[in-house]
Amino acid sequence: MDKSKVDYSLYLVTDSTPAILGSKDIVAVVEAALKGGVTCVQYREKHADTGEMVATAKRLHAVTQKYNVPLLINDRIDIALSVGCEGVHIGQDDLDLATARKLLGDDKIIGVTACNVEEVEAASTGGADYLGIGTVFATQTKENTKSIIGVSGLQYLLGYLRTSKSKVKTVCIGGINASNASRVMWQSSSLDRSLDGIAVVSAIVAASSPEGASRELLKLVKTPPVFA
Ligand code: TZP
Ligand code: MG
User: Which string of b and e fits 186-216 if b means at least 16 CB within 10 Å?
Assistant: First the structure.
């Protein structure tokens, strides 16, 4: 897959905790979400052992490949390498970006979580392909979110990237759902340097119809609001 052509518009991050996934199968949820138009998938799993993760990642990769959508693995470069998927997403407490790049090579996608100017600068100049900017709004999905930056924080960081003429792609994450997706996406686009997409967990994984939820979110991301 040519990573320069990846579409980050609607980026699904998985979660298999019962409170979010319920009794559904994560691979079935991802396939439904892909049918609904998800453009990028991250397999995020904090509880399974390595063997289980590799098995699930292989099943997920078979599905994402059918839709020509990249599969990225949260934290675990070893699993991305063993599955041969398109890349990884790393946080500030994971393996550092330079080492990850050495291990994965230039063709793979590396995304980095960033919540302040220092982190945005280090990741964007250090060769990240995209930034996951957040946490935007309070969320039940992630424990220990470092800081809630709000839409104003998001705009500030996008403004910084614009000033520094960075070409890094950007998605925002944290509490994004159908009621705020348009505001986040299109307020940010009032700046020249706009977001490339939104990243969501519960708005799709916990939805009664992951396919319908994905279709609705994609529409909000793609359709500029009409101001009266
Ligand atoms: N990183 C920052 S917030 C978050 C992650 C993985 C979880 C977002 O979950 P949700 O359900 O979309 O708020
Ligand atoms: Mg991490």
Answer: bbbeeeebebbbbbbbbbbbbbeebbebbbb
For residue 46, give Cα distances in angstroms to 10, 75, 82, 155, 226: 22, 9, 18, 30, 40
- Compare 133 and 144 and report the one with higher pLDDT: 133
Q: Is the ipTM of this complex over 0.90?
A: yes
Ligand in nearest proximity to the CA of 217: 1
Lowest mean pLDDT among 17-31, 73-87, 182-196: 182-196
Mutate to test the pocket of ligand 1, among 139, 145, 146, 147 (most ligand atoms within 8 A of CB): 139
Distance separating alpha carbons of residues 46 and 33, to the nearest angstrom: 21
- Residue from 115, 119, 135 to probe ligand 1 pocket by mutation (most atoms less than 8 Å from CB): 135
Angle at 75 between CA 136 and CA 141, to 5 degrees: 40
